[in-house]
From TrEMBL:
It holds the Pfam family SNase. This is Thermonuclease family protein. The keyword Acyltransferase does not apply. PROSITE patterns: PROKAR_LIPOPROTEIN, TNASE_1, TNASE_3. SMART domains: SNc (SM00318). Gene3D superfamilies: 2.40.50.90. Residues 31-165 form the TNase-like domain. Keywords: Endonuclease, Hydrolase, Nuclease.
Length: 176
């Protein structure tokens, strides 16, 4: 009987620890908030719903991707691929973590932010894969600039995607 009690107590502890880990996983990291992805507009813009139910158009900080949906413009090389990669990282209905910039808004009233999926910086993943360049660097929104610049250098050296077309990135995607 004593062995059964000890075994049950042990199982209870294991189950309890597992439940605590599960509950902790639902909490965002410090300085971040949970948001739900409505849709990805293009590689560097996403529409989300905040916890209070409000809807926000979010511009990913410190990056620029080729255009894929800009009115009166042709789709630029790797624009659709950047958008598809962002959609893969942030599917509709997915809960992600958002870290607001400071200031919080750009000149077009879009929220400026970094987005995190499973503790990975989406902004940085886009740069690493060669779908985005580091751009629009304005203080004080430079918290992850060093990491993004390192990722960009690696993508450039590997000639990943946007870096595979000579001069394309340097032209800010305009001459192709």
């Amino acid at each position: 009987m004593k062995k059964i009690f000890i075994l049950l107590a042990f199982l209870f502890l294991l189950t309890g620890c597992g439940l605590l880990e599960f509950l902790e996983d639902g909490e965002p990291a410090e300085g971040r908030e949970l948001v739900t992805v409505e849709r990805v507009v293009d590689g560097d813009t996403v529409i989300v719903h905040l916890e209070d139910g409000s809807r926000e158009r979010v511009r990913l900080l410190l990056i620029d991707t080729p255009e894929s949906v800009k009115p009166d413009s042709e789709v630029q090389p790797f624009g659709e691929e950047a958008s598809d990669f962002a959609k893969e990282l942030m599917p509709e209905g997915e809960t992600v973590e958002l870290e607001r910039g400071s200031p919080e808004r750009d000149d077009y009233d879009r929220m400026l932010a970094y987005i995190w999926v499973e503790d990975e910086n989406v902004n940085q993943l886009l740069v690493e894969e060669g779908y985005a360049r580091v751009a629009f660097v304005y203080e004080p929104n430079t918290k992850y600039l060093e990491e993004l610049e390192e990722a960009q250098e690696e993508a450039r050296e590997k000639e990943n995607n946007i870096w595979s077309i000579p001069g394309y990135v340097e032209s800010r995607f305009n001459e192709y």
